[in-house]
Design brief:
Strands 2-1-3-4 form a four-stranded parallel sheet, sandwiched between helices. The protein is an alpha/beta fold. It starts with a strand and ends in a 7-residue tail after the last helix. Strand 3, helix 7 and strand 4 form a beta-alpha-beta unit. The protein is 55% helix and 7% strand. The chain has a single domain, classed as 3-Layer(aba) Sandwich (Rossmann fold).
Amino acid sequence: MSNFVAMLDACVLYLESLRNLLLRLAVGGLYRARWTERIHQEWIAALLRQRPDIPRTALDWTREQIDAAVPDCLVTGYEHLENGLCLPDPDDRHVLAAAILCHAGAIVTYNLKDFPNAALAPHGIAAQHPDQFIEHAFGIDPSAVLMAVRNHRASLKNPPRTTEELFDSYLRHELAATVALLRPHAALL
């Protein structure tokens, strides 16, 4: 198990396909994934606004499964750090506070502008787009990333997806570099 800790922002947990891949990378030992109950509340609320047809109970079940998949994933007790932090969007201070408390090296997010390097670097943290994060993971252990993607595709049963369909979902989530790394290995996935 890697000692590298990454805080997952709500925007990456919101997207089912990306969430599944990031969790499989964590379960595979490539990094230690962390988040908070507040982050859960954010992605669930956003999904309910976008998709009111999804029952809240289904999303609560998903949250429970996510937490069960990754030991020690929930960060608590970070609230006292929030007021001393300055970010473009004050509502994001809790993410940085939790990242500081759990000694994360990265915050994985699409909202890079909300986590400027000047605010994160003093804490030894970098904001990383999920594509960059997965690309770095591939550079560390390509076989573990390929296994995570293969397991991700195998888990998709209703409906099942071809490798190309999975790549298409990754591309919709702005994972072009990830797909470029995976495509030469498509037969293994």
